[in-house]
Amino acid sequence: MCFGGGGDSGGGGGGGNDNDSNDSNSFTETLANIFTPNDGASYVGGQLVDDNTGASISAGGTTSTGNVISGAANTTSNDDNDNEPTRTSTLPATTATRPITATGVENSTREDLANFLTPFDGASYVNGQLVDDETGASLTGGGYSSAGDYIYGVSDDPSNNVIDTTGMDADEISIATATQQMTEDLPPSDMAYFASFLPGMFVPVFGGAIGEQMLSGGIADRQSIIDQQVAALEMGATPQFDAQGNYVGFDDSTMSSFADQVLSSDNIGAFLPPSLPASSFNVTQTDIDQLRAAGLEDRANELQVGQTLSLSAFDNPAYSADANNDGINDYDRFQTVFGVQSDAANADPYGMSTENGFITSDGRSFYAMGDGSVQEVVDNFVPYNDAASGSTVNQVYGIDDVTISTAGRDENERRGIYGTRGTSEDYDRYSRGGGGYAFMPAYMRKYMTGENFDVMAQQITLADGSIAYQRPDGSILSPEQFSNTARTENAFTVEGPDERYLRGYSQTGPDGLPIYFDAEGNPVGNLE
User: Fold this and answer.
1) What pLDDT does residue 152 have?
2) Bridge partners (DSSP) listed for residue 420
3) pLDDT band at 517, cuts 50/70/90?
4) H/E segment holding residue 515
């Protein structure tokens, strides 16, 4: 591991306001106050202020003592911007000015310290920029150096990072600034970074790898969120900034749709499936059931279990994994959105899907983030908060063992109380065969034919009323194969996805207090 860079707690410290309450500070803001006691600024009630004057300080601003404050530890969610923060699609005049070239830019003290402590990691801060020692390539946000070390960038000072806007118009500058700010959100926080050293201290051989894994998951999640935000901007979404010039999300009303992208493409073949060789497969009952679930009843009726279907070869040399050139694999994005929509459909059958998320049955709209979390969309605004995960679909619908869902609320204040539970399917074991059957009792000889047969299956009834047997992989076997087999009940269990279920409900009583009932309507104790 290497210390090279990072800045989640750099800037905005100071301990000069001993009598001020920090109750509303975030964790990183509190740390910044502790680690930078003499920089002339402090976080007070979540706001970055000058220690001497009490005036608000923006990121990159200067204190009354002459210190430049990066404000990198600021948590935007607790900023006091008169309730709903004012947003603008153009950078406000208060935006901290970044250099457009590294010429004459100096390292911060923290960046110089990182260089001193990690001399052989293959990366250095040069003119305020984190670069690869061998190639000079930028490592802002982190990445592997030519020496093979992963550079986390936790000491990076964003205020001296270059954003070269030469020749850009206002829209291009906004997108470049938003992208740069998000890239600077990728490194882990100081607390997470230093905590990753603990396993190595207690488990010398394997601890280092464990510590790296502690960080890598968070980095991957933040990267996926940032990638999707950048992709939206690439597809025409309008970046939004707060009064201090911090990127806070995008307006999706200007974002092109998938249909727009296909129609405007010079090569529509890039959006079609990739080349595939000729193939064949046997139809299963699952295939037929899925067709019926999709509303393709006529097509389902044309098929029979065990029927062999052949697919001719498909040649598409124009196929592109990223046909719309937004920087994200199209299939991966489809899988992310489809997973979110499937979870939402299971929880709320009366909602509906959108191109990038879903709408609940009560009219709320949600956008699927790159990590599979969701953000609520209000007035076409998709928020971004320092590459932090949004809500899960379950959280949107209040699905857990203790959370009350208000979706079932009626005029009598009846509220459904839902939970989740695991599902499973049991399969019986059917077997016959093996040697030595001549010496078995007469009632067992019928199972010992000399032909080996040993499968896990469950008996099912097909659409035509006939009996068949289905294996855990979905394949269907005919009843003839199961003649003279020994059966062991519930020999194999397959765990399925969690399902939502109604635990009960509450009804407001005459005294205004809730009365609880189980799912059958029987009075019970407190279900919450």
Assistant:
1) 87
2) 500
3) confident
4) strand 514-518
3-state secondary structure 184-197: CCCCCCHHHHHHCC
Rounded distance, CA 299 to CA 301, Å?
5
- Residues 6 or more apart whose CB falls under 8 angstroms from that of 446 comprise 484
Query: Confidence class of residue 400 from pLDDT cuts 50, 70 and 90?
Result: low
Closest CA to 181 of 133, 136, 240: 240
According to the model, what pLDDT value does residue 136 have?
Answer: 94
Q: In terms of Cα–Cα distance, which of 389, 400, 473 is closest to 221?
A: 389
Q: pTM for the whole thing?
A: 0.57
Q: Confidence class of residue 274 from pLDDT cuts 50, 70 and 90?
A: confident
> Residue 231: left if φ>0, alpha if ψ -120 to 50, beta else—which one?
alpha
DSSP 345-405: HHH-TT-EEETTEEE-TTS-EEEE-TTS-EEEEBTTEEE--TT---B-HHHHHT-SSSPBP
Measured from the Cβ of residue 125, the count of other Cβ atoms closer than 10 Å reads 25
- Residue 200, helix vs strand vs coil: helix
pLDDT in tens, 236-248: 999 999 988 999 9
With the C-alpha atoms ordered 23, 24, 29, 32, is the resulting torsion angle positive or negative? Answer: negative
Burial classification of residue 457, based on how many CB atoms lie within 10 Å of its CB (0-12 exposed, 13-18 middle, 19 or more buried): buried
CB-based contacts of 374-383 (< 8 A; 24+ apart in sequence): 374/340, 375/249, 377/252, 380/251, 380/252, 380/253, 381/87, 381/240, 381/249, 381/250, 381/251, 381/252, 382/232, 382/237, 382/249, 382/250, 382/251, 382/252, 383/248, 383/249
Answer whether 54's CB lies under 8 Å from 28's CB.
no
Q: What burial class does residue 347 get, using C-beta atoms within 10 Å of its C-beta: 0-12 exposed, 13-18 middle, 19+ buried?
A: buried
Phi, psi of 473 (to 5 degrees): -85, 0
- Phi, psi for 63 (deg, rounded to 5): -80, 170
- Summarised one tens digit per residue, pLDDT across range 17-34 is 333 333 467 766 777 787
Q: How far apart are CA 92 and CA 247, in angstroms?
A: 11
Ramachandran region, residue 398 (left: φ > 0; alpha: ψ -120 to 50; beta: rest): left
By DSSP bridging, strand 238-241 and strand 374-377 are unpaired
What phi and psi values does residue 176 have, to the nearest 5 degrees?
-65, -40
How does strand 486-508 pair with strand 514-518?
A: antiparallel
Higher pLDDT, 506 or 469: 469
Question: pLDDT of 52-102, one tens digit each?
Answer: 777 788 777 777 777 777 776 777 656 665 445 578 888 888 888 899 999
